[in-house]
Amino acid sequence: MVHIIHRVGIQSEPHKVFDALSSIEGISNWWTSDTSGEAEVGSILVTRFHNLDGYEIGSIKFEVIDLVSNQKVQWKFLDGPKEWIGTEVVFELHEAGTYTIVLFKHMNWAGEVEFMAHCSMKWALF
Fold it and tell me: Within 10 A of 66 (CB to CB), how many other CB atoms are there?
């Protein structure tokens, strides 16, 4: 299994970063505005992506696996791009001065494929 890993420093308080990663409103603000579901452990969330004309071009369904206030958010992908199904994303947070450090991992890819490089770049941009 292979993983995408990024380390990002955000000049903000951990609770604000945690809220952005763990709430429907937060996810809608940084990933895709069409996000639905209940943002609690065991719940299923759906994110839908649209082109500039408003047509849906894809969706992703994932389960919230773990939430540790101001420290960790973990998801498991259930539907979406075939390479993502069964993979997991973990956001681990810790403070470093005036920054919240996000250690991001998109884990358990079956192998290194070209789409993984695309996703790594997109995750970094988000």
Answer: 14
